[in-house]
Amino acid sequence: MASSAQNHQQHFPATSAPPPTPSITSTSTSTSTSDSAVTDLLSRLLHRLPPTLSDTPILLRRRSLLAATTTSPLVISFPDLNSSLSSTLTSVSESGFFQLTNHSIPSELARSAESDSLSLFNLPRHQKHQHFPRSWPLGFDADDEDDTGAGESLFLDSFCSTDSSELSLNSLREFTQEMEKIGLAVVEALSCAMGLQNPARYDPSSVCSLMWISDSSSSPGDTMAGSGKLYPYVVGLHYQIRSQKCSLLADSGSVSISTQMDSILVTLGDIAQVWSNGKLSKVKGKPILSMEESTSVTMSLLVTLPVESTVSVLSRVLTRGHGDTDTECNVNQNQDHYGETSEESKFSSFSFEDYAWNVYHDRLSLKDSLHRYRIQTQL
């Protein structure tokens, strides 16, 4: 990663983004309508549709969301990250997420960072724009035009840089940089387990980090995982300050999970799926807290790419097994040792900046954002 705030400008150039697309404000349903009643109504409507309509990809995906399962994420101890990912790669690849425990981030630091984040959202709207000027994707953003605070979020670099000396974000900055270290370790361990060349190992500037902070209490419309703002990433780290329930939108559908307090929920993103040539399942966006949770702010560290990057399938690397002095990776024991291979690519290369801009402003939770880049095999 970059070692100075100046390098941040290389990763995220301060260019003016095109005008944001108008947001669509959803009408709030009556508070007396329960979630189960809404689900039952949608289910009945789907069953009344003719087979030719009800079997479309979008409606099939909707069915999977209505029939969301409940699960506990696979737990991996951070000191055993490399060996655990190697032995549990199949499970992680299929689910697209797991939970880290016994990591090095003190719970007190996470709570102090949450306090810093809350203080930012308590600022008047004009001060948020003043302290965090738009330099997409960094800065303050909101879905609404008034000052109600609905749909507010902040994207900060790993230094939590601002244009104001009035803000004290020391705890948030330290927390972000500690999360970044863990995120890079996850990328390295995942690459090793799959026998893939990790770009960050040879060129630290090939990846970067974003701290994504959202005021979840003021976004009543974002009640489904994958809704709201989205940004592409390799891995996402979500510190669980409390033991809580949340939902994820994975390739298999909507999944409800229960996390442990002070653990880190790790999600694999769309860039990780491309890097792995489709072998890793992805999670879209960030976890969405269940409605009964009282948490009003969420903090997610995204290990992602500089905007000028090109996204493509990673090459396999040669591993020599035990005693190899060129690498510390332990490839999954159930896999062959890889050399350079002519494996057919399932994705075409594409511009990260164009892709990120489209994903950020599209926000269609049921749409496969990578569909246009998938290479259709000829039968």
UniProtKB/TrEMBL annotation:
Record InterPro entries: DIOX_N (IPR026992), IPNS-like_sf (IPR027443)
Keyword Iron tagged: yes
Record's compositionally biased regions (Polar residues): 1-12
UniProt region (Disordered), positions on chain: 1-34
SUPFAM superfamilies per the UniProt record, alphabetical: Clavaminate synthase-like (SSF51197)
Pfam families xrefs: DIOX_N
Gene Ontology molecular-function annotations: dioxygenase activity; metal ion binding
Low complexity: bias regions: 23-34
Superkingdom field: Eukaryota
Annotated Non-haem dioxygenase N-terminal domain residues: 91-131
Keywords, comma-separated and alphabetical: Dioxygenase, Iron, Metal-binding, Oxidoreductase
Stated name of the protein: Non-heme dioxygenase N-terminal domain-containing protein
Origin species: Cynara cardunculus var. scolymus (Globe artichoke)
